[in-house]
Amino acid sequence: MPYRRLPNTDQARLRTLRAILGASATQQDDSVVSYKSQLDAKTLLQNFEHAISLYQQMYERQINSNKDFQEVFQNAKLYLSHFIQVLNMSIIRGEIKAEIKQLYHLPEDAYSMPNLSSADALVEAGAYIMEGEAKRIRLGGTPLYNPTIAKVNVHYDIFKEYRLNQLSLQQNTQRYAAQVNSMREAVDTLIADIWNQIETRFLSLPPYQRLETCKSWGVIYYYRRGEALLTPADDLPKPQTELQKIVVSEEIKIEIEPETAQQEHRLFDESEQQDSAPVHSKIHTLLHKKKRNRTTVQSSLLSLFFNN
Questions:
Q1: How far is CA 258 from CA 245, 269, 297, in A?
Q2: Do residues 275 and 198 both lie within one domain?
Q3: Dihedral sign computed on CA atoms, order 188, 193, 194, 196
Q4: DSSP bridge pairs for 221
Q5: What Cα–Cα distance (Å) separates residue 124 from each residue in 116, 174, 293?
Q6: Does residue 283 share a domain with residue 176?
Q7: pTM higher than 0.70, yes or no?
Q8: Are 99 and 187 members of one domain?
Q9: With CB atoms counted within 10 Å of each terminal CB, which end of the chain scores lower, N or C?
Q10: Can you say whether the dihedral through the CA atoms of 272, 276, 279, 283 is positive or negative?
């Protein structure tokens, strides 16, 4: 008999609950699934479907918004890296002193780019660049061009706005995912309880008929590796095998042999008791017992004639 296994995906859980409710709608009473379990399944199905729908909608919104966010992120990264390159080239040409790089939180003796690979790193580096350029201009420095800090600031602000929106979508998606995850245990527990009711109700059916009936009620079965598939032939009466015939015949022999041995023992006991009787009496007695054990009687007659 194959074994059952609970559904391992949300869609499989939904299909199982729908199958149970669909089969329950055809029964006249609660002989298979109780009314309480049917009501719990209907309520849980609606809530679970709603939670999954909200999660899927929010996840799709996050995915679609992420495409626009990545484009804005790349633009802000491009303008910020170009501004840093212009700053480094101005220092190399001697137009700006190297120690001024401290205002931007950049190392004086290095001209490599800061880490801009992630959104968080871009937010941090962009804030330092904006703040440092504003301080340098207040100290009497000449504004840098191509690109100007104003244009860099525009793309940087757009990036921060998209990032906040993306973070909000991620939080909503995680919240709905946690809600769906918290309902899975309740769904699995209810499905297991209903499956127990179904299998108990059809326990008296033959194996193949029981399997197909339970499957129609939403029970999911799996065959083990190498296990033979159940067919309608498994429900037919099985003929007696040769091994069973041999076992039965051996049992009959075991029951008969003690009785035969007892008869032979009784025959010899009676013969020994009659040793003192006349010969013609012994012959008459042995001929009378010939029907009971032919072989033993013949041997006794021969021994009687030869001994006498």
A1: 21, 16, 19
A2: no
A3: positive
A4: 4
A5: 9, 25, 114
A6: no
A7: no
A8: yes
A9: C
A10: negative
Q: Which amino acid, one-letter code, is at 79?
A: Y
Give a yes or no: residue 24 inside a domain.
yes
Those residues whose C-beta lies under 8 Å from the C-beta of residue 68, and which sit 6 or more positions away, are 162
Instruction: For residue range 204-244, list pLDDT tens digits in order.
Output: 888 888 888 898 898 998 999 888 888 887 777 766 555 55
* Pair of tokens at residue 284: 């008459």
pLDDT at 294: 52
129 inside domain: yes
Sign of CA dihedral 144, 147, 149, 151: positive
The model's pLDDT over 174-184, given as tens digits with 9 standing for 90+, comes to 999 999 999 99
Residues 42 and 134 in one domain: yes
Within this chain, do residues 86 and 27 fall inside the same structural domain, yes or no?
Answer: yes
**Tally of domains in the chain:** 2
Residue 52 CB contacts under 8 Å (≥ 6 apart), including other chains: 10, 14, 180
Is pLDDT at 298 greater than 80 in this prediction? no
C-alpha dihedral sign at 164, 169, 173, 175:
positive
SS3 for 199?
A: helix
Quick check: is 297 in a domain? yes
Range with the poorest average pLDDT among 83-87, 147-151, 161-165, 304-308: 304-308
In a domain, 124, yes or no: yes
Q: Which residue has the higher pLDDT, 259 or 123?
A: 123
